[in-house]
Amino acid sequence: MKIIIDTEENIAKKAAQQYIDLLSKKPDAVLGYATGSTPLGLYAELAALCDAGKISFKDVTTFNLDEYVGLDGTHDQSYRYFMNTNLFEKIDIPIEKTHVPSGLDLDIAAEYDKDIEKAGGIDLQLLGIGVDGHIGFNEPGTPLDSITHVVDLLENTREVNARFFASIDDVPTQAVTMGVKTVMNARDIILIALGKSKAEIVERMINGPITTDVPASVLQLHPSVTVYLDSDAAALL
Ligand code: GLP
After folding, report:
1. Are the CB atoms for 230 and 5 separated by under 8 Å?
2. What separation in Å is there between the alpha carbon of 142 and the centre of ligand 1?
3. Among 10, 12, 16, 103, which lies 20 to 30 A Cα-Cα from 46?
4. pLDDT digits (tens, 9 = 90+) for 221-232
């Protein structure tokens, strides 16, 4: 794992540079995107670069990590809506080349890994990390060989994500997520963690044993992971 500790602003710039480098070599790359508050700075940076003509996503295909079960793409807390409003509508990507697992049709969601494979596999997967070590919605205990599947969200994850909903009762109880194996199949991975609340799990991800108890720890086995941390998230390293 390559660890880079910097300010939130510089992390957005440095991570964006990885996208510039990749797309200059491979304009039709397949990108894996993530939701949550962590990638927002990077998404703003990518949108600004696209606006300035320094990067183009017109030949890119994207696959998002996860989606809540039961929310359609027009729901303002669906991850499809999040991606459309925070990134896809702000860059030059044809919307039909963007994929988010269906939270409504689970038969379609079951084909997600095949769709990724048909597109050529993911070149660069972006990840955040949950305070319990989840990547995507792969909660502790998820098997390492898992592909895209439906998960029951842990109560703690629902509580953490409740800040985006009117009340905790509105937070879905299930999600569809790429599996740990789906993520590990990506050629390159960027993981960003910001803030004090991530410090403990970041330390376990990087220095702890590789265990399904901390799903992100399996990234230690991946040949090309860049971890971007602000000083708060890196505090216990
Ligand atoms: C959610 C998402 C994850 C994300 C995590 C952290 O549960 N499914 O993909 O990494 O939250 O979110 P945040 O970046 O808001 O801390």
Report:
1. yes
2. 16
3. 103
4. 999 999 999 999
Q: Is the CB of 38 under 6 A from ligand 1?
A: yes
**Any catalytic annotation for residue 99?**
no
37 lines ligand 1 (CB under 6 A): yes
Instruction: Determine how many CB atoms are found less than 10 A away from the CB of residue 97.
Output: 17
Q: What is the pLDDT of residues 24-63, one digit of tens each?
A: 999 999 999 999 999 999 999 999 999 999 999 999 999 9
CA of 119 to the centre of ligand 1 (A): 25
Give yes or no: 117 in active site. Answer: no
